[in-house]
Write a structure and sequence with these properties.
The chain has 270 residues and is an alpha+beta fold. The chain is built from 9 helices and 9 strands. A hairpin with a 2-residue loop joins strand 8 and strand 9. The longest helix is centred in the first third of the chain and has 47 residues, at 16-62. It is globular. Residues 1-15 have low confidence and may be disordered. The chain binds adenosine-5'-diphosphate. Residues 41-257 form the Histidine kinase domain. It is an enzyme of class 2 (transferase). GO terms for molecular function: kinase activity. Its main location: membrane.
Length: 270
Amino acid sequence: DTDAVIDVRIGALGEHGVLLLADDLTRAVRVEETRRDFVANVSHELKTPVGAITLLAETMEDAAEDPDAVRRFAERMQTETRRLSHLVQEIIELSRVQGSSALTDAEPVEIDEVVEEAVALNRNFALGSNIEVAVGGSSGLRVFGSSSMLTTALSNLISNAITYSDPRTRVGISVRRDGGMVEVSVKDQGIGIAKDHLERVFERFFRVDRARSRSTGGSGLGLAIVKHIATDHGGEVTAWSMKGQGSTFTLRLPEMGRTETITVGSRTLE
Ligand code: ADP
């Protein structure tokens, strides 16, 4: 436990090697605490839809004589089941990105292809929400990493931009080079995020408006996944927003130049 570790630290002061060991212990305790928090959060988040489905199933049994009521309950059960399935998918996705390093099967990635793919994944959602997704011209820039993970990250940003915007607004995606970094920005004209909340949006399970997020099926894990993928690629994700003024999320990734070659094991990548 934490007390024991603090004791070890105090007892070991002056002994460089032992102090290092104590530091490792502290880190191990912290990792364990994070893991325990995560499991507690997951259990809590799963209980809500599972509870709702159980209740609906019981009520449906009581209403067996009334076909209209049965149909209504069945529809609500489907909504809850979709929500549950989305949540489970996001939990699996987060453990997947946390468990593997992007760089194990990394390769040169054309960022324009990632943008195209992520936009395509959201095409039906954008159409259904009556939101125009506009991509600025092609950049011809490359990064080094996992194209599937980068597509997931960008797709999460685009799907959020659509989710938190009103119909007939626009989501703009642009790519540019800044120093040695490739910057991909997703800008919306949506509801925006207040300053206090902005600092917390990358936390796991954080949602500004739980009620609204519930109706949109949000899990609060999308941005935690994006952050993990960005960091894993040696980059970062940042957010700019003002309540009522829309938001801009920017992925910054180290650029891989056209003439650069990278050697991974026995493979040379150009
Ligand atoms: P969720 O599945 O709830 O969208 P995320 O981790 O993707 O989870 O986002 C966390 C919270 O940040 C959201 O619930 C929402 O309140 C806020 N948020 C994320 N993207 C945007 C955006 N583009 N505009 C406004 N709010 C956003």
